[in-house]
């Protein structure tokens, strides 16, 4: 999809299939049409004013009206924006997602958004156009790899018309669209990887994708195979991957050098890359087990983050670490009761092979901490069902040892709509994961605070370095149960959660 911005008024553009306007929610009898919609109402022969005062068009969130115009080969699209006081970038992303999906199903191929109607009052038109563009690009994604014949018609062009009110902002709006284009490219590229099933997306496949990314963007990529991992003492990743006869584990490191030379800050981003989580010997029930092809979501998000870091040339140095393994039962699997030694020497008592993410991450966290001395470590992992129980599908769990880091991530979450909710992490939680026979145990016999104790376990491997852990188990993919509640721009399957979030965080540094 092409994203454009023009000074002209939308109605003066010769070649668009529809003009799109936003309407904030209004209620009560004889609701008034805002004056800014007068030119549109004129084209619609007064229909808008009538429909609004009758309560037929109310501007409710999610509402879309496609209105034919007398004598014009063009449609007017009115999208509800919800209450004006809660109008923010996220509402605009969702509104745009709803509009482009409607437009696609009606075979409207080019749309002109009248920007003034989406940035009422004192709202920033540059932010508004970026949010609308982002929602538009992301909403049209479909995973067609195994069903290419079904790829449907699509919206090919979205134009933002600034009009006289905002014409002076043209260069800034265009700059915003360029950034959004690169962000969306990274998210959509990652979605194509994240949606692949485990028979295709093996640890070695993820390593190949990292290498291809490195080639395209000039990033250093290092792949550690089983033999290398054994030499390094990465017993955690090796244990988790030991059951797979066909898909051996890998640790993949992707490095973006930063823009500040040797003075650059270093941010390490570590992702859980379990290409399939059957639970291993502590096997999961069959129901929804297929969703566990998405247990690599953290690692795929890390690939996307490195791609945007390079595409947007962010200031800090970024080191991405993907901890990749397939967790399946076999005669060679690791077992409950096993004790494994991780990079740096800390030991883990494995009480449940289904708590494998933390075991695989232990090596990546301690390795990157020891070898790169990062200023901050952020990990992303579909770590616990307990986090989904606590927060559902709307927010990822945030655990942090550093308040400034937590605040920055929370702010990026609000800005990008990839929302976080901070959870506690206290000494008692560290006590809960202490083992009698090793430094830590990977699971408790009793269930309380499952997401928090998993975080406490990870904390063991980052030392004193400021660290944040994002439990994305509820937000990484849209399963059948969550589809009804997902934002319009998150297609079903892998979402790419964390890419736009971390891009915002890295750009702000
Ligand atoms: N990958 C799962 C967590 C998960 C659950 C992700 C649901 C997405 C949706 C993880 O490896 C796991 O199995 N965790 C266990 C931990 C338990 C054995 C301590 C869990 O959450 O039940
Ligand atoms: Mn598991
Ligand atoms: Zn898992």
Give the helix/strand layout:
Elements: E1 2-6, E2 18-23, H1 38-43, H2 47-53, E3 64-68, E4 75-80, H3 89-105, E5 110-114, H4 125-139, E6 157-161, H5 163-166, H6 170-194, H7 203-217, E7 220-224, H8 226-232, H9 235-241, E8 250-256, E9 266-277, H10 297-311, E10 317-327, E11 339-341, E12 347-349, H11 356-372, E13 376-381, H12 385-391, E14 396-400, H13 403-416, E15 420-422, H14 427-432, E16 440-441, H15 450-459, E17 467-471, E18 477-478, E19 493-494, H16 499-508
Bound molecules: ligand BES, manganese (II) ion (MN) and zinc ion.
Write a structural description.
The chain has helices at residues 38-43, 47-53, 89-105, 125-139, 163-166, 170-194, 203-217, 226-232, 235-241, 297-311, 356-372, 385-391, 403-416, 427-432, 450-459, 499-508; strands spanning 2-6, 18-23, 64-68, 75-80, 110-114, 157-161, 220-224, 250-256, 266-277, 317-327, 339-341, 347-349, 376-381, 396-400, 420-422, 440-441, 467-471, 477-478, 493-494. By secondary structure, it is of the alpha/beta class. The protein has two domains: 2-185, Leucine Aminopeptidase, subunit E, domain 1 (3-Layer(aba) Sandwich); 208-508, Aminopeptidase (3-Layer(aba) Sandwich). The strands form four sheets. The protein has an eight-stranded mixed beta sheet with strand order 7-8-10-9-13-17-14-15, with helices on both faces. Helix 6 runs antiparallel to helix 10 (297-311), helix 7 (203-217) runs parallel beside helix 10 and helix 10 (297-311) crosses helix 16 (499-508). The two termini are 30 Å apart. The mean pLDDT is 96.
């Amino acid at each position: 999809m092409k994203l454009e911005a023009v000074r002209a008024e939308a109605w003066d553009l010769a070649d668009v299939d529809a003009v799109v306007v936003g309407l904030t929610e209004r209620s009560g009898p004889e609701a008034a049409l805002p004056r800014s919609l007068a030119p549109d109402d004129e084209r619609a022969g007064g229909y808008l004013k009538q429909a609004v005062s009758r309560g037929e068009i109310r501007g409710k969130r999610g509402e879309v009206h496609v209105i034919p115009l007398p004598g014009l080969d063009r449609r007017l699209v009115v999208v509800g924006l919800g209450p004006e006081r809660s109008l923010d970038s996220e509402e605009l992303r969702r509104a745009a997602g709803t509009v482009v999906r409607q437009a696609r199903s009606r075979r409207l191929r080019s749309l002109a958004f009248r920007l003034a109607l989406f940035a009422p009052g004192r709202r920033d038109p540059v932010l508004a156009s970026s949010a609308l563009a982002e929602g538009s690009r992301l909403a049209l994604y479909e995973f067609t790899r195994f069903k290419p014949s079904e790829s449907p018609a699509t919206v090919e062009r979205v134009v933002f018309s600034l009009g006289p009110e905002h014409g002076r902002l043209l260069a800034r709006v265009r700059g915003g669209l360029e950034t959004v284009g690169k962000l969306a490219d990274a998210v959509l590229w990652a979605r194509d990887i994240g949606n692949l099933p485990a028979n295709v997306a093996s640890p070695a496949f993820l390593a190949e994708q990292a290498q291809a990314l490195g080639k395209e963007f000039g990033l250093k990529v290092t792949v550690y195979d089983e033999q290398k991992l054994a030499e390094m003492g990465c017993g955690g990743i090796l244990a988790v991957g030991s059951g797979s006869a066909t898909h051996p584990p890998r640790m993949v490191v992707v490095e973006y050098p930063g823009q500040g030379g040797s003075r650059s800050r270093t941010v390490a981003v570590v992702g859980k890359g379990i290409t399939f989580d059957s639970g291993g010997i502590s096997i999961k029930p069959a129901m929804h087990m297929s969703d566990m092809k998405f247990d690599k979501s953290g690692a795929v998000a890390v690939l996307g983050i490195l791609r945007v870091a390079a595409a947007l040339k962010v200031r800090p140095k970024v080191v991405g670490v993907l901890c990749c393994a397939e967790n399946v039962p076999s005669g060679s699997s690791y077992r409950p009761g096993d004790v494994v030694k991780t990079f740096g020497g800390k030991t883990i008592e494995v009480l449940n092979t289904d708590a494998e993410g933390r075991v695989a991450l232990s090596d990546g966290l301690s390795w990157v901490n020891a070898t790169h001395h990062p200023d901050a470590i952020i990990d992303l992992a579909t770590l616990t069902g307990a986090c989904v129980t606590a927060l559902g599908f709307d927010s990822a769990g945030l655990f942090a040892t550093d308040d400034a880091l937590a605040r920055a991530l929370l702010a990026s979450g609000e800005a990008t709509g990839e929302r976080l909710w901070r959870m506690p992490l206290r000494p008692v939680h560290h006590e809960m994961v202490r083992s009698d026979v090793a430094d830590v145990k990977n699971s408790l016999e009793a269930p309380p605070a499952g997401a928090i104790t998993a975080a406490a376990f990870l904390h063991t491997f980052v030392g004193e370095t400021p660290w944040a852990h994002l439990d994305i188990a509820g937000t990484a993919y849209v399963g059948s149960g969550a589809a009804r509640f997902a934002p319009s721009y998150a297609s079903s399957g892998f979402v790419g959660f964390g890419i736009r979030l971390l891009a915002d965080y890295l750009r702000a540094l």
